[in-house]
């Protein structure tokens, strides 16, 4: 048998050397820690100075040791951000392409509609802006919901004209004075607005009840259920409101359905008064009765 000691370059000897070095370092650390505890117990000020000196000595070494790990973490974060940015860019590009296709289809349909209307000589009613006025105040007592605007007959405002903002319909003019007009709001109990459900095309009636929401009544095709979020726009029936004006959004689909108005008069500031979409022509004056001829004498 070979009883010769292992050579200096053998794996076993290297393991023994590493184990010895680790034990010495561990012992030194433990001894230094015990020494610090002892000094801090006997002389706290000296212990504090030793700890500060140790921190000053270890900080540069620790920063050098941490540098590769910090760099790896930063690189990993950058790689994740890059991959996330690529995915977001692809999604945005897809949305942009879909939007462009939708715009192109809409333009083609609009051009086709213009051509068909020109061929059929369709006459579209024209809505004209009458005045833009500030809301001077709004009442919400009981079932009466109305507002006062700072424009009247002197500015061309007459009863029965639509009042709206960019967000949607506000109501219609009710009583017009020389410089102010009372507006009947959508939520008033006397308000009735013909609407259409955009998603299904169902005609209905948006009715005010004096509260913050509208009730949807007389809906054609009630077997097709409504969904929360369905948009209601004016249908143009009745000739007062033009078609396509946002009115409300369904918030409760169960019977009776309820909808939140698209435009609230609170905090609106300014509103626009327009001419009716299709005003009813005034009736011709009645002909005066013919006087009976005097009998001959």
From TrEMBL:
<feature type="transmembrane region" description="Helical">
    <location>
        <begin position="20"/>
        <end position="40"/>
    </location>
</feature>
<keyword id="KW-0133">Cell shape</keyword>
<dbReference type="GO" id="GO:0008360">
    <property type="term" value="P:regulation of cell shape"/>
</dbReference>
<keyword id="KW-0472">Membrane</keyword>
<dbReference type="InterPro" id="IPR055342">
    <property type="entry name" value="MreC_beta-barrel_core"/>
</dbReference>
<comment type="similarity">
    <text>Belongs to the MreC family.</text>
</comment>
<dbReference type="InterPro" id="IPR007221">
    <property type="entry name" value="MreC"/>
</dbReference>
<feature type="domain" description="Rod shape-determining protein MreC beta-barrel core">
    <location>
        <begin position="139"/>
        <end position="260"/>
    </location>
</feature>
<dbReference type="InterPro" id="IPR042175">
    <property type="entry name" value="Cell/Rod_MreC_2"/>
</dbReference>
<protein>
    <recommendedName>
        <fullName>Cell shape-determining protein MreC</fullName>
    </recommendedName>
</protein>
<dbReference type="Pfam" id="PF04085">
    <property type="entry name" value="MreC"/>
</dbReference>
<dbReference type="InterPro" id="IPR042177">
    <property type="entry name" value="Cell/Rod_1"/>
</dbReference>
<keyword id="KW-0812">Transmembrane</keyword>
<keyword id="KW-1133">Transmembrane helix</keyword>
<dbReference type="GO" id="GO:0005886">
    <property type="term" value="C:plasma membrane"/>
</dbReference>
